[in-house]
Structure formats: C-alpha cells, structure tokens
DNA sequence: AGGGGTACCTGCGGGC
DNA sequence: TGCCCGCAGGTACCCC
C-alpha cells in the first residue's frame, strides 16, 4: 500500500526513463477507463500527445507529471497502483494504461483494484484533491508550530488527525502507527490534549520514519502487495515496531502490542509505552 | 461545519 | 476441494 515513501520511490525510479520525453501515444484498457479523467480516451490523448514531461513532483501521496505547456497529469496510486517503465509492451493482467514515448520506452500504470486515478489538468486549473492537502509531511512548513496550531481545537483523536491529509499530507495507516509509537502517544488521545511539548517530537519522528522508509525503498508487508518498479520489495518492514505485530512483545518494554479499530482501520500500539 | 458511515475494487486467507 | 466471509485501506461523497 503506497504511502509517501513508496510514492517517492516510484517517482525516483521512473524519472530517468520519463523526464524530458515526448508522449507519442496513449492507450487505456476498458477496465482502466475509471482511472482517467477525462474519461474519453480520445479526448485524453488529444490533450497530452506531443507534449513533453518536464518534471515529476509529489505532494503527499499525489503524483504530478508536469507537461511543457503548463498542463499536468495528476495521479494517485491509492492502494494498489504502481508504475513500470519498459522498452517493450508489458503484458500484465492489471496493466490499465500506457504512455509510449517518441524517444522510446513505455510508461505502464498497473492497478489491481482500480482505485487509482490519472487525471489531466489544463494549465492554471485546480485539482480538487491537491487543493485540499495540508503541507507535505517532509516539507519544512510542516513544523511543530504549524501542527500545534492546527490541532489545538480538534477533539478528534491524534491518530485520525495524522491520517487527515488536510492536516498533513502523506501519512497513511502504517506510518501513522509507527510515528505514534515513536512519539510515545496513544492513538486514542484527543488531539487537543496532546501536550504542547510533544509536538516537536511528533514532527521529528514523522520526518525520521518517512525518511528512513525512503532509504529502505518503502514497506512491503506479508501480503507483498507493494513492489517497486523493478519488482523489488520494500525493506522497511523489518523496521516496523508496532504495525501488524498484534500480541507480539513491544521492543521497548515487552508488553504485548494491542490492536484496536479506529475509523474502521486496524491500529496497533503498545498500551504500556503509549499510555 | 465537521464528523461518521460507506462505496469503490480485487486478491487472499481462514473457517467450515 | 470449494464456497463464503472478512480484511486490506485512501479518498470522495453522502448524510445528519
């Protein structure tokens, strides 16, 4: 499940094969239609063919392909999306859409569950999802003053606040669990009751966990749903301290890790360390 | 306004 | 073996 570090890894891996290349053709399968906007493949093609990809950036988990006329393609991998760039057509049951380049190479967007998105945005136009985002979790503007101001009147629990993309962009379930463990905070603590002195720790641990995960090319869980572009697995799972460790001993205090449900998601924490 | 619930999908593992 | 159920979870959108 791609969160910020996995998204970052995909961008880094495809950049050398995609940057400054010109789009020659666009194809989408019938099942891939629900990913794209505009949904008419002919219209989509018309908007992007002949344009050059000048940059690929990221805000939270959104991926932005910048085209040379100021237009953009905004993509989101959601739970199961991934990118693979190949020399030849890539046969895969869940290969939903492809961009072929004049200079050679094919960009493939694989997505088993078809929750991912791939949207063309005209120059100067807004993207709804992007415009709702708070600062990127790795941006300098995400600091303890920002976070404490943002949360001081929120009654919702701290776990939900960290997962709220309009508060901070890029944190998903796995890393929210890990960040709270390292900041010694109970996931159920109301945001407005987080001690002021703890905010620098939350911010520091957020950046440390995410940067560490980037170094390890992301997290691959037992179900192996995440692979990088070369089919490699992320290696951060060996560093996970609470996520998916129900009943296993806490590495700090040996107490069994507890699993609870918040907002219909599995949340893991040490009831002793994170009191 | 803001919070809660649910839909969107597919694969997989567990229980019977 | 096979079927059914629940789980995985990011975001949009509905409703109250």
UniProtKB/TrEMBL annotation:
Ranges of residues in domain FPG-type: 241-275
GO molecular-function annotation terms? 8-oxo-7,8-dihydroguanine DNA N-glycosylase activity; class I DNA-(apurinic or apyrimidinic site) endonuclease activity; damaged DNA binding; zinc ion binding
One GO biological process term: base-excision repair
- Keyword Metal-binding listed? The answer is yes
Per UniProt, the keywords (alphabetical) are: DNA damage, DNA repair, DNA-binding, Glycosidase, Hydrolase, Lyase, Metal-binding, Multifunctional enzyme, Zinc, Zinc-finger
Q: Where is the Formamidopyrimidine-DNA glycosylase catalytic domain?
A: 2-116
SUPFAM superfamilies named among the record's database cross-references: Glucocorticoid receptor-like (DNA-binding domain) (SSF57716), N-terminal domain of MutM-like DNA repair proteins (SSF81624), S13-like H2TH domain (SSF46946)
Q: Which reaction does it catalyse?
A: 2'-deoxyribonucleotide-(2'-deoxyribose 5'-phosphate)-2'-deoxyribonucleotide-DNA = a 3'-end 2'-deoxyribonucleotide-(2,3-dehydro-2,3-deoxyribose 5'-phosphate)-DNA + a 5'-end 5'-phospho-2'-deoxyribonucleoside-DNA + H(+); Hydrolysis of DNA containing ring-opened 7-methylguanine residues, releasing 2,6-diamino-4-hydroxy-5-(N-methyl)formamidopyrimidine
EC number(s) given by UniProt? 3.2.2.23
Cofactor requirements of the protein? Zn(2+)
**Pfam families annotated for this entry?**
Fapy_DNA_glyco, H2TH
Protein family membership: Belongs to the FPG family.
Mind telling me which PANTHER family this protein's record contains? FORMAMIDOPYRIMIDINE-DNA GLYCOSYLASE
Kindly state the subunit structure of this protein: Monomer.
Tell me the protein's name. Answer: DNA-formamidopyrimidine glycosylase
Q: Which organism is it from?
A: Candidatus Dojkabacteria bacterium
Gene name as annotated: mutM
